[in-house]
Amino acid sequence: MKKIHKTRRIETLSRYKGPIKVGNTVMMLSGDQKKATGKVIDFHRKKGLIKVENIMMRTHFIKAKDNEGKGGTEKKEHWIPICKVKLVENNDVK
Q: Which of the two residues, 14 and 18, has the higher pLDDT score?
């Protein structure tokens, strides 16, 4: 009987090694916000996702705490696949 390797999934995922880095300016290629530009805030290399400033904003609902008694909504950036953006400006700080 063959053994199934538990690490096979990890081996198939490749880390992104392209030109897009945190601080660079990128432009959306598709979707509702096509041709919108913004600065890269966060990067997830293993999953191939980025967060861009003021693009793909999602509403997060904050639950009212018992001690504070205030709840509400908050707008946050959501993850975008790297294939949906292209590099516009390289703002590397050295």
A: 18
- Please report where in the chains the tokens 């090694």 appear, as a residue: 17
| Calpha distance 93→82 (Å, rounded) | 21
CATH number of the domain at 11-89, out of 3.60.21.10, 3.50.50.60, 2.30.30.30, 1.20.1600.10? Answer: 2.30.30.30
Cβ burial of 17 (10 Å; 0-12, 13-18, 19+) is exposed
Mean pLDDT, rounded, of the chain: 82
The domain segmentation of the chain, as residue ranges, is 11-89
Give the containing element (helix H, strand E) for 60. strand 57-62
**Above 60 in pLDDT, residue 29?**
yes
List the structure tokens of 56.
């793909």
Burial class (CB in 10 A: 0-12, 13-18, 19+), 38: buried
